[in-house]
Structures are given as structure tokens and as C-alpha cells.
Amino acid sequence: MADKFAVIGLGQFGLAICKKLSEKGAEVIAIDIDGDKVDEIKDHVAYAVELDSTDLRALQSQNITEMDAVVVSIGQNFEGMLLTTVKLMELGVKRLIARAQGETQRKILEKLGVTEILSPEEEVGKNVAERLMNPSMLMCVQLPDNYEIVEIAAPKNIIGRTIEDIGLLPKYRLNIVTLIERIEGEPHIKGVPMPDVIIEENDELVVFGLTKDVERFIDING
């Protein structure tokens, strides 16, 4: 049986979530008060409905408590986002994920008791900052306690060397997750790298470790 999700708020962020979930085989209910937005997504999801998500009865009419998770991705209407979140908590949905725009909204959601909070603008900002500071860094996922997972274009000083020779773990305290190679611009995962794998010019490394250790690795080998 397919997982069932409801996405409330069909801005660019909400639309992207709906489409990606549907592509992965999930059953998605897309909800927005704007009929034009509902029309835009209706061919990509199991069901799209125009309703006021701050209306408790309207939510109940969609069997919202049967969803495996509900994502509140309302971006422009902060009051509507809060009221929707409160209504969903009153209904006791299985899993609630809410979007926060900025630290103030995050703190308010935390006070309400929401434990899963998304801040896409903040994450994008961090990624852009990292790429500006380190042009070889292609992707960065910030984790708690100053850890991160990053995708790095192979620094020039490690090209032609094996993973064992580079000494990511003993020298830099970094773990390699995988290698990515670009073939005609398209990324392809090389799988789980073995110690004798040689780093090639067009390779990209996905590594895990402390931010300071990642930066040190780039500085030394860039």
C-alpha cells in the first residue's frame, strides 16, 4: 500500500514536495485555498482540493487523520499557517511537518509543540554561503553539532591518487560516502568506494565530517 501524504500550501515549495512524493509512488492530497494553484497540481497528484485549511470541519472532510504525514507549507500567510498547524494538532494527525520562514516563526512553532520544522530559505542561504566561500563545494547539508555532508569537486592535489593514499579518515577525520562522476554533464553514482579506487579528474566526492575538517581538506588539497 502506498504511503499517504497531505501537503497544505501550494507555493513553489509545496508544489515541489507534491511532485517529488508522487514520483516516488506516494498517494498525495494537495490542498490550497487558491483554486488556480489546485488546478496547477491536480494532474500530478492523487487528489487536489480547494479548501480553507483553518477550517476544522473542512480538514476532517478530507480524512486528514488517515495520512501518514501532513506537511504545512503555507508561506505567505503566517496566521493561516499557525491556525492550520493548531487545527492539525487538535485532530491528532500521525506526523506533522511545518514550514518556518525565519527564526521567529521557528520559535513560535516550537512553542506550539511542533517537532519537525522545515526552513528551506535558511538551508538555501547556508548552501549559497558555503559555495561562495568554497567554490569547489557543490552541495552542503548542515547537520547538528557542526557536522555536515558535502559534495566536493575533486581537489587537484588528490586527482590520480587512491582513496587509501589520500587518507581521508586518518589524516582529515572525514568519511567518504560515495563518488560521483559526470558523463556528458549527467551525474552517476560510483557506489561505495573501495580503498584502491583512483580519484579521476571529473569525480566529485561526497564526504561526512566536521565543518572545520572539510574546510581544512579543501584548503590543503585545492
Descriptive notes:
The chain has 222 residues and is an alpha/beta fold. Strands 3-2-1-4-5-6 form a 6-stranded parallel β-sheet, sandwiched between helices. It starts with a strand and ends with a helix. Helix 2 (35-41) links the parallel strand 2 (27-32) and strand 3. It has 2 domains: 4-118, NAD(P)-binding Rossmann-like Domain (Rossmann fold), CATH 3.40.50; 123-221, Regulator of K+ conductance, C-terminal domain (Alpha-Beta Plaits). It has helices at 12-23, 35-41, 56-60, 78-91, 103-112, 120-133, 163-166, 168-172, 211-221, and strands at 4-8, 27-32, 47-50, 69-72, 96-99, 116-118, 137-142, 147-153, 175-183, 186-189, 203-210. 37% of the residues lie in helices and 27% in strands. The relative contact order is 0.10. The chain has 9 helices and 11 strands.
